[in-house]
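Can anyone check this?
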Amino acid sequence: MGTWGPGNFDDDTVADGLSAITDDLIAKIAEVFADEDDDTELQPDEWGGSMAPAWLEILTDIASAGRVGATFPSRSTLEGWRDRYVRVWDEYIDELEPDDDYRIDRRQVIVSTFDRAVSLARERES
């Protein structure tokens, strides 16, 4: 259709660009989870362990706006990511010797980030 309104996102080209951005974020997150036999990349002191929740929050913020072109993982994918990520966090975080407040607060943020994404996926799939 080309352009369907005056807004910055009311255009096929922009929708394609938004899809490219969200596809890239999904690919980055999926790469962190790719090796099902090795959780090292998900550990809290690794690049992927730090970046995956941040990328997911960015992706969720973009997709929650409801703009044409924004892609998003399925609920089942997100639930799998969440369960694995939280399991790795719980198994590994004490090795880093964080204080109790940080451990509790950070875990709460992580769970909230994934749960918000799962909730959005559920809405998008219904």
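Reply from J.R.: I decoded it. The mean pLDDT is 97.
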